[in-house]
Structures are given as structure tokens and as C-alpha cells.
Amino acid sequence: MTMPARLAIAAAMVSVAVAVGGCAHPMRGHMPPRASIPKEAPAQVRKNIRHLYGGPQERAQACLNLRRGPEAVAATAFLIPLLGDDTLAWSPSFFLRVVGTPVRLEAMDTLVSIGEPAIEPLIAALGHDVEGVRSGAALTLGRIGDLRALDPLEQAAAGDPSESVRVAAGRALVGIPSLRTLGRIAVALTDWDHSVRETAFRSLRRLNDPQGDPLLVALLESEPWRGSRDRILDVLHQQGRVDVVAIAVAGMNDPDDFMRAPCATRLAEWQDPRGQLPLIRALGERYGDVRASAVDGLAKFGTSDAVRALCEAVTDRWERVSDDACAALIRLNNPAAIAPLVEVMDRVPSRCAACREVLKSLTGEDFGCDAEAWRAWATRRGLAGAMLPCLPEEEAP
Question: In this predicted structure, what is the pLDDT of residue 222?
């Protein structure tokens, strides 16, 4: 192939890459003049602001750099037009411009990091003549979550001529914790989009109002929140208005593994006396994670009933549970475990070695797997009381 032909092909490839990647700065005409870059701003900030006028990689990198410094507020007016910049950056090569992150998302992250000083300029940007800037400003205000944005966002959600801006403003309102937005938050909690649900959950947590409690309780039965029920229980527990221990105790009988597991974990952590009996009963669970949490909780309770239950857990079919039970018994060093462990050794020979190790730690003696010898030793010291039932007969209060 001749050199002119090669050059023609290369030029064509570059033209295609430029067309696909959008090397031009689509918002340059909406940027403040370079002469308006504040001279009192730190040199590094002024340098990064100048890069906001460059190529897509420069613009994205400048946004990232501005997030790293405390003086980025000086760049606010220069970042806002970039909310309408859909050019992709961070592409792996010149010829793969369609892979990357839009510059507008980098600008949005930087404005969120600026926070309070950016609120008024962002509210003003809801009237920008570029649709993308208006929707980006709305979403950024929602992420900051300041109440000052409530009225402007409601106006945009109701009256902006662009459907995309109205949708963005409605979504942004979910991020502002207020009783006025509680209805939107309630709807968003079951949205198909995970990020929308998370925004609603954060707002509800920040709102911390009794009117939000029923929404949080309802989430415990919501399919999209199956894997996040421990977080919901945490928020309810921290806020302290709902008897979350009673909810967790009831949840231990739920047929859904993803309900019982976080309930067991939280009952173990909270150490409320009402949680001990459900945790003892949970040692008969089919789901191993629930049994493991029960062992952890009973080890923290450390009562005689808990110790006897842990002795039974030494026989668990899952090694993690049985090993944790042995470690807990050694750590508790409670003589109440001696007689039950001897009974377990006699009844379940396959767990003899585990029982022996715990008994050695508790007594300082070693009679191997001879249950009768252990029993005789315990009798001589008045420690051979009959093994009581692991599950107390009385119901939890």
C-alpha cells in the first residue's frame, strides 16, 4: 500500500473516532469567559479550571483534581455548564471513545463534594437554557439534599417544559429529607432502580421522623430489600421509637432465610434478654448462617442456659458452628458446661475429640474420650448435675 493511501486510511480512522467520541467541547459556548477565572483562587485551582476548557480527558481529570482540594468552590460557575456535557472520558485509547464516563457525571460528583456553597448556583441553573444542565443541576441538588432546593425542585418537577428535567427533579426530591417529600420517598423505596431505592432509604434515615417508621417496618417484608434487612433493623434500633427487638424475635419464625439471618445477627448484637430463647431455638435451624449467629449471640449472653445450648451446638453438622461453639465454651470457662459436655461425649462419639478439648481447658484434666472417667471426676467435685434441657420450657416474655 502506498504512503498516500495509508495516510488517507489513517485520516479516515481519526475522523471516525472524532465523530464517535465527540472530541469537541459541546458546552464551550456556555462556559464563563476564561478571563473570569478568579485571580485570588489558588494556582492549582486556576490551572484545573483552565483544563475544563480542554479535551474530554482533560475536563474529566480536572473535575477529579478539584474534588481533592478544599478550594474547589472557586470552580463552581465553571463546573455547572459541564452538567450538560455528555462527552465520554476515561477511554482506554484514542480509537475507543465510546468507552468511559460522561464528563457531566464527573462534574456532578465535584459539585456534590463542594456542597453548600454550590446550592444557590445550582438552583439558578434550574433555569438554564440547556436541558442537560437543568436535569444535571436537579440531580446534583438531590444528592446534596439541602432543604433550600425543595421549592425550586418542586417547581421544576411540575412545570419544566422538558420531560427529562421533570423526571430528574422528581427523582431529586426523593433525596431531600422532608415530610413534604415523604410520599415520593415511599414510592421510591420500591423502585426497580437500586440507586433510587438507596436514595430514598438515606432520606428516610436522615428525616428520622415517626411518620417514617411504618415505611421502614414495611421494608422488612419487601422483596427488593431482602438483602438489606439488617440495615433497616439498625436504623429502627438507632432511632429508638419502634420495639425492634420484638420485630426481630418475630422475624426468627419467618420462612424467608433473608429475614431470619439478619434478625439472629441483630439479636446477638443487641443482647436484649428477650433474644436469648429465640437464639437457643435457632440452633435447630436448617440455615447455617442463622445457627452461626445464634452461637455468637449465646456466647455473649454467657448465662447457664446459653452455656448448655452451646454444648449442644458442639454437635452441629457445620464445622464453623461447632468450632465456634467450642471456642465460646473455652472462652466463657463456665463449669456449668462440664456435665453437658460429658453427656454429649457419651451420646455423640463422633464429637468426642471436640468435647475433650473443651473439657481439658475447663478442668485441667485429660481422661481422653472416656465419658465415665470424666463423669466420675465431675461427681467427686460436685459438678455432675444432670444435663438440663437445652431449650427452656418457659416462653420468652
Answer: 94
